[in-house]
Amino acid sequence: MEKNHNKLLEVRPLFEKHKEKVRFVIVGGVNTVVDFTIYGLLVNVLGLFAVFANMISTIVVLCISFWLNYKFVWESKKSKRETAPKFVMMSLFSAWVIQSGIIWIIVTIFGADDMVNLLAKIVGICMGTITNYLGYRYIFRS
User: How many domains does the chain have?
Assistant: First the structure.
């Protein structure tokens, strides 16, 4: 037991050093599950066009994401009035320009079947995640 406790003590400084990144990944996971669920239902059940479904799913996730990023990830001391508009603009750029652009390119090249839609969304999320992390650091840090 003592040996495991010592290992946990060794991990703590590493976690503290990378706390924002770890929390960003956790929040990103939650957001991704919600995003994929809504996106999948809209595309595969309701038959909406992939880009339109992406816009709807990202609006829902945007609301959840702001609160989680503000409070949990960045523990921001800046006002919500200052950070919210920047967050929305950064998130919409990432979701509607970066993600939707990548989805459109992939669907246009490979066709719009269930697997292509899913893979296009995954690639779009990966690129959007990088854009978001860099932007959110600037927005939320004091």
Answer: 1
